[in-house]
Design brief:
The protein has 221 residues and is α/β, with parallel strands linked by helices. Helices cover 27% and strands 33% of the residues.
Length: 221
């Protein structure tokens, strides 16, 4: 069993949970994911790691309550225990294995949509730990769907927020924000895009126009 240490309602249907998982916290890397099961008969839920605290043995996940399983998960509270939490799984970010020289040559932009903001964070945090400045574009349909702006600003050189309805920051989607930044003179040679599949698809189409090598995050069952 894995004890829930903290639960927080971030925005709209987005929730954060800190879980007591010492082995995962010590061995996990930015870009990897875990599979969470809320009860013995529950569905396997793949969730990209949002943060790790090896010293305290704490794993942080962020999820959107949009289906039966994630809605059940959202009803759980601190003190309760998850039936299972398996990980770390998947490939870590390619940035983790890059040398200092390789990282210094990269001009990186992270593009995060909706709940994808959470898994972008540990990669940006990792870059900061290696002394690399990066830009982050965070997007949501409305201001209420954007979270962790201050948290991201603490580890990124520049953070740009885009909302489809213009309720906060740049009016438009993340692809249009990227276009605007490049039009202003920004240059990138590496992009990481995390968010809904359709958003990652159009994000890749946007970066392809500028010949920017791009990595996306895929963790569905």
């Amino acid at each position: 069993m894995y004890k829930i240490l903290k639960k927080e309602h971030l925005s709209a249907a987005n929730y954060l949970m800190e879980i007591d998982a010492p082995m995962i916290a010590k061995s996990g890397k930015a870009g990897q994911f875990v599979i969470v099961i809320d009860n013995e008969k529950g569905e396997r839920i793949p969730l990209t790691i949002a943060d790790l605290d090896p010293e305290k043995g704490v794993l942080t996940i962020v999820f959107q309550a949009i289906g039966a399983s994630t809605m059940r998960l959202a009803k759980m509270e601190a003190g309760e225990e998850l039936y299972c939490c398996v990980g770390p799984l998947g490939r870590a970010s390619d940035l983790v294995d890059a040398s200092d020289e390789e990282l210094k040559e990269k001009k990186i932009v992270f593009i995060a949509g909706g709940v994808g903001i959470a898994p972008v964070y540990p990669q940006v945090k990792y870059c900061k730990s290696r002394g690399i400045d990066v830009d982050v574009i965070m997007g949501g349909r409305t201001k209420d769907l954007v979270f962790w702006e201050d948290k991201m600003k603490a580890v990124a050189a520049n953070v740009y927020v885009a909302t489809d309805d213009g309720s906060y920051g740049f009016k438009g989607n993340v692809c249009q924000q990227l276009d605007a930044l490049i039009a202003e003179g920004k240059e990138y040679n590496h992009a990481v895009i995390i968010g809904p599949v359709i958003m990652m698809k159009f994000g890749c189409m946007a970066t392809k126009k500028y010949n920017i090598p791009t990595v996306v995050s895929m963790n569905p069952i």
